[in-house]
Amino acid sequence: MRKLYQLKKWYTVEEAAKRLTLTLDEPIDGTDVLRLIADEELGVFWYVRGRDGVEVAPANWYVEEVEEGFENVISYVGVSRQSETASMLDGIYRVETEICRGSADWLVSLGAGKGGTSASPFGTLLIDERGCMWELLDRLDERRLRDLPQDLPYADVRNFMISSDRPAVGEIVLTKQELDRFEAQFLAVPDDLSAAYGSQNDMRDRGMWPWGSHETKLLRALAEAGEQWWSTYDQDDKTTAPTNEDVSEWLRHKHGVAARVAEVMAQILRADDIPQGPRKR
User: Fold this and answer.
1) Alpha-carbon distance 201 to 210, whole Å?
2) Are residues 165 and 27 part of one domain?
3) Computed over its alpha carbons, how large is the radius of gyration of the chain?
4) How many Å apart are CA 131 and CA 121, to the nearest integer?
5) What is the pTM of this model?
6) Residue 279 resides in a domain
7) Model confidence over 231-273: pLDDT tens digits?
8) Domain total for the chain?
9) Taking the C-alpha atoms of 95, 100, 106 and 112 in order, what is their torsion angle to the nearest 10 degrees?
10) What number of other Cβ atoms are within 10 A of residue 241's Cβ?
11) Residue 35 CB neighbours (<10 A)
């Protein structure tokens, strides 16, 4: 898991727990991950295979109510369809929980240890990797299809009904990007610690130190790594750049930094336009 998890693009709940156990240096189990999801510390994703859906977009809906002679207009956020044709959904989708009340209730049941409900009302909304929103659909049964015009195209949305299916616990996945985002917060810097480390002062003087005067054990290690591996970098010779593997290995052995944290720190030190190696020895 220590090596292979770095290559994975998505994780089951149990795999995510194993990864977080390694990166946070404390025992994490599947129940902990589900509670983090329910608390919205982690987004929840579903590996959807061969389901029908229609593209939708958020929309404001207004309902007029008359009570004791007074008109009251209630506004709420819903969705409007962007197409009249169903599409096949296949891949990893984030389960939307802000607009969809049913999914929000389902999320709470995960944190309560009830395993989620697979058929809560209000439908199910999914977000793809491009940020497009989809409403999950189920095809009508044969009896209902017979009541519709027989010349409707197969993918016409009138042949479908809204589905409230949601992933079972075993179908929940978490993306690498989501776990990276979650883990990154543990590198946050306290605001009340001042630095008195020489190489940090030098880097600040050169305008290369973005963290002000804050210092922690990790930042001290980060500063040393920058001095050790990047002080000899020649912008005209990309081969003088260290590899992330070199830097993270040095951090692990020199400062005892956890493997995943060391990888993140090595990436922080690398500017976006600098390729990795090969470094000249």
Assistant:
1) 11
2) yes
3) 25
4) 24
5) 0.60
6) no
7) 777 777 777 778 888 888 888 877 777 777 778 788 878 765 5
8) 2
9) 100
10) 23
11) 15
